[in-house]
Amino acid sequence: MKYIFFYISIFTFLFSAKIQEDDIELFLLSRYGGDSANVSLFISDEFTYKHTPYVGLGVETRYIDESLLITKVLNDSIQKYLQVGDRVYEHNNEIVDSLGLITNGPVGEKQKLIVIKNGEIDFRVMEIPLEEYHYEENKSSFLESVIKYSEKWYDYDLEIIDILKKKNSIAVHYRWEGSRQEKGKIYTFSAIEFYYINKKKDLIDKIEGLWSEKQFRDQFK
Prior knowledge:
Layout: H1 2-14, H2 21-32, H3 36-42, E1 43-50, E2 54-56, E3 59-64, E4 67-73, E5 87-91, E6 94-95, E7 110-116, E8 124-129, E9 131-133, E10 136-138, H4 139-151, E11 155-166, E12 169-179, E13 187-198, E14 203-209, H5 213-217
Parallel strand pairs: 1-14
Antiparallel strand pairs: 1-10, 2-9, 3-4, 4-5, 5-6, 5-7, 7-8, 11-12, 12-13, 13-14
Helix pairs in contact: 2-3, 3-4
């Protein structure tokens, strides 16, 4: 019954005149459910997702063979330390796991990594300072991220706390929680995002995330 309602909602969206509050909830369910095909129906070809600025190491990783393989470097400033294909084995004297590189601390604080550089066989000890990163994705990259994110989780729950609409923008406050395995630990986050609507196409042109209190607190130990 749940899936029947879901696809009826998609059908309703396709033939509605404008994006409404209920459409945003449907978009989020598709997004975190890993349904990139349905997500694509909501966003324009010029779509941009502006990630919430964060303090970190500026890389994306995938857990493989008891190490974190670096799959993406967000900008040139980090490439003097880390590059795609490098493998991280320890972070601040802790063996890494599938949760990735979880960083806490202010801009400039150094993180100790044990790394094997791409093409090498020996371990290196590296100290890399935290920086503030502003990360943007286009439509194709965002759709790929939708799939990758959903694959990490066994199940999830999404609560829409508030939606405010004004002219061509919609503000959304929601809470997400999920687990990586059945009866596993529950992880959660809250987010506030602004959705900017292309009135001519009735599609989402841009999503922009905001800083949260947690991100501020994570800079302190």
